Amino acid sequence: MPGDNNINTTQTGERPGRLVGKIAVITGGAAGMGRTTSLAFAREGASVAILDIQKEAGEDVARLIRENGGIAEFIETDVSDARQVDTAFDKVIEVFGSYNVLFNHAGTITVKPLHESTEEDYDRLMDINVRSAFLVCRRAVKEMSDNGGGSIVITASIASELGYALESLYCMTKGAVLQLARSISAEYRDQGIRCNAVCPGFVKTAHGLREISELDIAGQAWEEGALAEAQGRICEPEEVSSAVVFLASEEASFITGNALYVDNGWYAKG
Ligand SMILES: NC(=O)c1ccc[n+]([C@@H]2O[C@H](COP(=O)([O-])OP(=O)(O)OC[C@H]3O[C@@H](n4cnc5c(N)ncnc54)[C@H](O)[C@@H]3O)[C@@H](O)[C@H]2O)c1
After folding, report:
1. Inside any domain, residue 12
2. Which CATH number does the domain housing residue 73 bear?
């Protein structure tokens, strides 16, 4: 922070957690990058509310956090359903009183040629990736504004701004959520809300590994070297979580409306 010359802020010399005092809501926090971010947030001192459709996995993450001295609550939620989102946020308020961090992460992918994609494919992907972000962020910007602000991080993708064969629907949805992040930053800055997006390349999660495998089956060659050419190696989910922790924390206090590419330079070289 400006004017802070203290390099040793605890009596024991330990670095204090970067999210101490924060209350974070994480959608899609039961698995993949959502899971590693739930754990990273808790490690940095945040209390964590995990919203996900996967009950067992979500409860496991919350239990793991509590067993390690943290505070966490799992709330089974389909974030594409307006009623479930509102019920879940009511529960967050009931348990934690308020919240000042949102990681809007839940999402999925369809790998298919555009001309074979159905309206059902379109509706499903728009519901899970875009409607969910609308429902969750609509609720969060109001409550964060009323409570003095906060930080929102939305998981976009390298596919938010670049186009990829067999991923037209997915690219549409990820472009939409990146624009949502930028729009929130413009609309709510003066209410104390920062909003940024993380844009990963391929990440080693169920989502990323299925995507690589389905693209390869469809004739692309990611496993045979295209991935190494694009981004050097596959990204570990923790490497995305580090970026999310930074954006959620006060260390990013003057950063809003940004797309942070976590892709080892893929986007930069095109
Ligand atoms: N893995 C990658 O390579 C990659 C790259 C760029 C962006 N992304 C983005 O990351 C997200 C996928 O996350 P991941 O890679 O950690 O994969 P993942 O599949 O392991 O995790 C996704 C999580 O979202 C949850 N989820 C899905 N639909 C939901 C719903 N309707 N309501 C509540 N929770 C729901 C799942 O249960 C799961 O826990 C998507 O937003 C995707 O666009 C992934």
Report:
1. no
2. 3.40.50.720
Closest CA to 196 of 127, 262, 124: 262
Query: What are the backbone dihedrals phi and psi of residue 258, each rounded to the nearest 5 degrees, phi first?
Result: -100, 150
CA dist., res. 126 & res. 199, Å (int): 18
Q: Is 79 in the pocket of ligand 1 (CB under 6 A)?
A: yes
Model confidence over 98-140: pLDDT tens digits?
999 999 999 999 999 999 999 999 999 999 999 999 999 999 9
Please report the atom of ligand 1 found closest to the CA of residue 212.
3
Q: For residue 49, what are the domain limits?
A: 23-203+235-262
pTM given for the model: 0.96
Pull the structure tokens for residue 63.
Answer: 């239990």
CA 111 to CA 167: how far, in whole Å?
A: 5
Q: Ligand 1: which of 108, 158, 262 to mutate, most ligand atoms within 8 Å of CB?
A: 108
Q: Is residue 9 part of a domain?
A: no
In a domain, 214, yes or no: no
